[in-house]
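okkk here we go again. third time trying to get the zinc ion bound version out, last two times i messed up the smiles copy paste (missing a bracket lol). double checked this time i swear
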Amino acid sequence: MKGIIRVVRGSEVKLTLPGPSVTIKSDGTIWYQGMPILGITDPVIKAKVSAAIKAKRYGDIPAESWTRLGDNPNGLWAGDEAAWATHPAKLAQDEKNAARREQETKQVTIWLSSRGWGDFIPAKWIGDITRPDAEILAECKEELRSGYDVDEPNQTDDEILSKITAARTKWATPKQPYKEPVHGPGYCYSCKTYCYGDCGDYHPARDNVTVAREISEIAREIS
Ligand SMILES: [Zn+2]
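finally!!
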């Protein structure tokens, strides 16, 4: 078989089988690497069946234990990619992921105050910026009050609210893609001024050499 066969119980994917190792016999039963895919929850039956499999007495396996494509009496569902795409468990999973991703886009950091000698991470609030101001304000005040060694713990509500508003405005503003500034004649990408070659390392165009230089500068800044 091509693709992937999933075996699902309830909303949980129990097995993800690579198609090339899966065989579907003429009676519809699914086999993986020469072993039947079975659904047995009763430990007594399980023990009996595993003995039958070891002895290759497949005829002794109860009819209701076998797994075929679709819903099975053993409680398992099995299907290929196309069938899985519309399975309720997959749709529920997609919905959950979409909700999580949407929640993540609302997460904003508000910088509230420096701390101590500046050796510490500044006091900040992180959360869902679409929540009401009053709730965010209360949490910011709590952070300023209880945070360790906060430099400016006594900020007015208006001061904090203006930070919340600024953060929300910035969050709501669509990000402009970075545009390479256009430089006129005489501009040098080596010294980054209009040196007209005075620096001795004149790069009038942003060629591969200047790009490489910029990358190494960024790498230096990071380290
Ligand atoms: Zn120059």
